[in-house]
Amino acid sequence: MPEISAKKNEPAKTSRVHEMLKVGLSSKNKAEKLFTIKAMGILRKPEFSDSLVDVLSSPDPEIVESVIETLGKLGNPNAIKYLLPYLFDEIPEIADVAFKALMCFNMRPVIPSVLKAASNDKPPTVRKRLLSLITGINDPKVAGAITDTLGQTQDPSILIEALSYFVKFPAPDKSTIFKMLAGSNNWEVAMYADLALSRIGDESARSKLKKLAKSPASPMRHSLVTGLNKAPMVQDREIFEILLRDPHPAIRMAALGGFDAFPASDRQPLILELLGREKDEAIRVALYDRAIKEKSVLFFSEFQKLLTLSNEASKDRGRHGIIEMGQMVVEKILNGFSKMTLEMKEQMLLVLGEIGDRKALPTLTTALSSKERWLKLNAISGIERMREKPFAARFVEMLNTETDPWIVATLISAISHLEGQPELESMKKFLSHQDGRVRANAVEAISKVKSPEVFSILEPLLRDGNDRVRVNASVFLWKLGNHSIIDKLSVMAKEPSKWVRASAAYALGEIGDHEPVPVLLELLNDREDVVYRNTIEALGKIKDARSIIPLLKEKENKRVAPEVFDLIFKSFSEN
Fold first, then answer.
1. Cβ distance 463 to 482 under 8 Å?
2. How confident is the model at residue 3 (pLDDT cuts 50, 70, 90)?
3. Contact at 8 Å (CB) between 2 and 32?
4. CB–CB of 364/349 below 8 Å?
5. pLDDT tens digit string along 96-148?
6. Does any domain span residue 127?
7. For a tag site, which of 166, 180, 205, 408 has the least CB within 10 Å?
8. Could you tell me the pTM of the whole model?
9. CA-CA distance, 569 to 545, in Å (whole number)?
């Protein structure tokens, strides 16, 4: 398969791509150079950093800024020494980008360099940034330098950063200096000192924090929850309970980070209570996502409510929440099934299928005889998800009497997934069905039959009037070993019909072979939006390095939403 050969030749491929990009780096065209730098960041190959470091000498601030940002994405530790000096750059934007880039690195190997750069003679804003790069590292050298900083500076921002280190990594031997700073005239310095003291069991400090949680000043409460979130403790539960009920939404949202300080027996009823009173939609979503992680039947009713909403995202979240409860919830669903609304029954059939407990089979089987379309459809899908192979024969029988095209299409799909190799003659007749979904699913079913006839049966469907049928035929012919299909699709990509061109682009993306990438790059000039969008998505699926710079240019053309390209580039980075 193409994927295997690609992995064997990975070093050679990377080298060729690197050489191609190095040409772009040396271009005198600024736009081309910027696109190349961004492309290197998307590909995330650490070895690109050596070539990029040379470009830091550019007199153009925009190019330097782009290189710094990309070096952060590549994460090659050898680049850190080149980035540290840019924290002191006279152009604020470059200093900001350098700081964000450095935050992407593991700074442990360069602790001495960071500490040296953060000497007392440096500007406070830069020192704070440098210290923040290492205050998450539990290391004796860092602890010593932070201790020295507490005694040598009066700058509040630096003191807060230094104290936050001892919030994360408690130090009983520093209690004297913490108590001294707890008397600071700066409320935030005093608060962080009390936080550091509370981590080592100082109840007086904890009492002061509880009072601060009820302060009328929301910035104080927000700073408190930010500090607590650096290292939540069981002893912080009372403070978190106050902040979880705060009138300010941003504070309530931040306080969700304290849930792990509660045992499950307290946390789950608390989440349920908060869901009952919360009006802010973003916080409600965060609470539901936390409830999903709990996997507790306690939240069944809450997730059931989501299934009654018209919003598909809410329904998905509701199903997910109940499915995560697993077999513990099956009995509850089955006991209440007869009293549920029709809409709820439809949703629960999918849930039961996904959970996969065989106790649900009688309920799913009964629904197969329902006169309600969606009950029947979801029962078929539920049984398919349970991989109940004996039902394939039942589904074949249902095909003999079923007339609803949607149900016929679903039955064919289920049969092909359960049987593995459906009976060829029983599937062939559906290739002439008037409904495109039925024909498309029949193509998928027939592709699983091990017979030389399959090629001659599927090939005429490359010209079917339905785009999904054409795509399925193309993809499955390729999977069956007919690699000449790529040439045929490449020809189809130039045909007058926009629907044929769009199907060809989509099919090439589904196949994922790198050979037709030049054909797809040409389709980026197509004036028809359906062809253009399918081409963009196909290039995103294939993930060929040759397409990155053309895609970056297309993002600037704004023919489709930038978020589409962001997802594609993310997939390149993850590949």
1. no
2. very low
3. no
4. yes
5. 999 999 999 999 999 999 999 998 888 999 999 999 999 999 999 999 999 99
6. no
7. 180
8. 0.85
9. 11
498-511 and 529-542 are packed helices; what angle lies between their axes, rounded to 10 degrees? Answer: 10
Which tokens hold the place of 127?
């020192």
Q: Does 4 score more than 50 pLDDT?
A: no
Judge if 472 and 487 occupy the same domain. no
Residues 472 and 488 in one domain: no
Whether residue 204 lies inside any domain: the answer is no
Pick from 479, 513, 536: which residue ends a domain? 479
Q: How high is the mean pLDDT of the chain?
A: 92
Alpha-helix residue ranges (DSSP H) falling in 295-435: 300-306, 312-325, 330-336, 342-355, 361-367, 373-385, 391-399, 405-419, 424-428
Q: Which residues contact 415 (CB under 8 A, 6 or more apart)?
A: 392, 395, 396, 399, 422, 445
Same domain, residue pair 567 and 511: yes
pLDDT, tens digit (0-9, with 9 covering 90-100), for 312-326:
999 999 999 999 999
Query: Is 299 among the domain residues?
Result: no
Number of domains in the chain: 2
Q: How many residues does the chain have?
A: 575
Is residue 35 in a domain? no
Phi, psi of 59 (to 5 degrees): -75, -10
Same domain, 544 and 575: yes
- Residue 163 in contact with residue 193, Cβ under 8 Å? yes
Which tens digit of pLDDT belongs to each residue from 10-41?
555 667 788 888 888 988 999 999 999 999 99
pLDDT at 16: 78
Distance (Å, whole) CA 124 – CA 154: 10
Contact 212, 228 (CB under 8 A): no
- Identify residue 235 by its one-letter amino acid code: Q
Among the listed ranges 17-26, 60-69, 435-444, which one has the minimum average pLDDT value? 17-26
Q: Tell me which residue of 174, 185, 182 sits closest to 147, measured CA to CA.
A: 174
Q: What is the pLDDT of residue 13?
A: 60
CATH number of the domain that residue 409 is part of: 1.25.10
Which of 479, 509, 539 is a domain's end point?
A: 479
Q: Are residues 490 and 427 in the same domain?
A: no
Query: Is residue 436 located within the same domain as residue 510?
Result: no
CATH code: domain of residue 567 = 1.25.10.10
| Structural domain for 575, as ranges | 483-575
